[in-house]
Specification:
Elements: H1 9-47, H2 53-79, H3 90-114, H4 118-134, H5 157-167
Helix pairs in contact: 1-3, 1-4, 1-5, 2-3, 3-4, 3-5
């Protein structure tokens, strides 16, 4: 154990990592299932030149942002003292969690835009999220990765969220 870390640091790290995974997965799966319900209308409106993809995506992100921030704030209120974060870091943690929800939501939009079938999209979402978890930094020691796949750790948003929360 490194000097300066409390003896409960491994449990704290596991808890932080689990919460990051939950934020990312919850947002991704809920977005995949929701967008596929709207997909036919979206395709018709794109074909009719009502608007383009970028305004649609930005408007969806803007309107869903309060909801995507509410859940991380609620979880942060509940578990802040349970994970023993340092005093004064509440809002930093809330920002990292809210960003993880945004990344999960964007991942869900990306996957659901590829498939027209809800079951296929849900299965593929798992295959997109699992590498993020594997290269997130808790399950696999990133310093021992072979050079041929070590680049993959930089594609995982979980890695950056995990590191940010460990530094907070």
């Amino acid at each position: 154990m490194e000097e300066g870390w409390p003896e409960y640091a491994p449990e704290m790290a596991a808890g932080i990592f689990f919460i990051c995974i939950a934020q990312l997965s919850l947002a991704a799966f809920s977005t995949v299932l929701e967008f596929l319900k709207e997909r036919n209308v979206f395709v018709k409106e794109i074909a009719g030149d009502t608007y383009s993809v970028i305004p649609y995506f930005l408007s969806k992100q803007f309107t869903e942002f309060p909801l995507l921030c509410f859940l991380p704030l609620l979880e942060d209120f509940i578990m802040f003292d349970g994970i023993y974060f340092r005093k004064g870091t509440f809002w930093y943690i809330a920002i990292v969690y809210a960003l993880m929800m945004q990344i999960g939501s964007s991942t869900g939009y990306f996957v659901s835009s590829i498939f027209s079938n809800m079951e296929q999209a849900a299965i593929c979402t798992a295959f997109v999220i699992i590498p993020m978890i594997m290269f997130g930094g808790l399950l696999v020691n990133l310093q021992t990765l072979p050079a041929i796949i070590s680049w993959a750790q930089y594609t995982s948003p979980l890695r950056f969220a995990f590191e940010a929360l460990l530094w907070i």
